[in-house]
Amino acid sequence: MRLSLVPAHQKGNAEVHAANAFRWSCWSHGRIRCGRGQCGTDRTGSRYRQQVTIPDVFPDGLYVLGYSWYGGHFEQGDYWSCAEVVINGGKPLAQSYQPVFVNSHNGRCDSTANESGVCRREPCRKRRLRRMQPKAFDGGPPDRIYSSKIQARGENKWQGNKNNNNKGKNNNNGNKWKNNNNNNKWKNNNNNKWKNNNNNNKWKNNNNNNKWKNNNNRNKWQKNNNNRNKWQKNNNNRNKWQKNNNNRNKWSKNNNQSKWQRRQGNRQ
Q1: CA nearest to 150, candidates 26, 13, 255
Q2: CA dihedral (23, 26, 28, 32) positive or negative
Q3: Phi, psi of 69 (to 5 degrees)
Q4: Residue 68 host element (H or E)
Q5: Is there a contact between 5 and 67 (Cβ–Cβ < 8 Å)?
Q6: What is the pLDDT of residues 61-108, one digit of tens each?
Q7: Which residues contact 90 (CB under 8 A, 6 or more apart)?
């Protein structure tokens, strides 16, 4: 197995992965028993675990950790994987680092290949399993890794991106808060409109009630006026009738007096 660390912007460059490979080991080292549910369908009930220390030669920044497994049993081909990692802090930056080959069986591994790319397809046939060392260590250890040659993006830049992401999140939260406020304002406006409409309706109803009452009062007043006018007419008619009666009585008296005078004249 081979591990490499490359700056994130160079993650697709195979030459940089080869130059920054810092650790080789045997896949069969570090066998432990599986806990319940840790090994899935594995019949042996065991798994492999290794601890890795990142060398101090890599400056702070954002990297991609490359994992390569080649030369496995059962005619297996090459397997690759990667993960983004952040290097920050730790010991002072070292100028160089010597790659290592660890967790081996006397400097050898049980494998069908000593480098990646030998078995690009499965099944990898006509490859005999035997003990061998990585090709990078043939004739001695590989070249050292120098910090000055690592084109890492500054950790401050990564933090800036992180801060920008946080700003974006904060802006999103701010927008959510604004949207909530707008929704609340909209609800309040709707409630106020509804209340205003209710108040308007009440006011209109009150006005209508007042108009109805005024109309009723006006009608009553008109009826009263009509009744009063009728009463006045009746009184006037009654007064006229009484005057007429009085006149008639006077006339009858006058007639009676005239008749009496005539009688007196005749009597004389």
Answers
A1: 13
A2: negative
A3: -120, 120
A4: strand 61-69
A5: no
A6: 999 999 998 887 767 778 889 999 999 988 999 999 999 998 777 888
A7: 54, 56
